[in-house]
Amino acid sequence: MRYVWMLLLPAMMIGQRIPWDKIKDSGVRLALRTYSEAYVFSSTNLRFEGYTIVDVRFFTNFVHVKRLSLYNNRIEDVSPLAVLTNLVYLNLGKNRIKDVSVLSNLTGLEVLILHDNVEITNVRGVHKIPSLRELDLRNTHVYHNSFKTWAFTNTLGIYDREGKYYEIAPEEKEKWGLNNSMVVPAWY
Q: Residue 20 has what pLDDT?
């Protein structure tokens, strides 16, 4: 079966080229030069870490990707990533992100890493992701967010601001919340 897939892959790749003339972000250009075009357009696991990427609009071309790491860049706006509905893993750690509400479209997302985005003060939208099972909020500043309204259906593992790890079962979510990125007993 693996051999058949390898024969079909070149046929699927016909016509897919990186549009170098449309990529203005120097970080994206540098990152894409690291991989072959065939790999970029066929892999379901892409890592573009530490390339000083600012603009993620080009990544909307990768709707096939299941795991994407954009760790340690300069990303502020993640709204273009909302179309990547096949994602199950997204690492946005160590960027300059403030708003993650648009990620609510990623209903299949299981792991979301947001650590070291010190300007994140809320995780609106993330609470709508039913498949979420791990959330990393180390070194963020999320204030007053109750897990009561969160949609997760599996046990949610969460790293708080200080790196403490908690597991919250769906039937226990009304007992917990976030205050200053710390997991705390519910206050309502």
A: 85
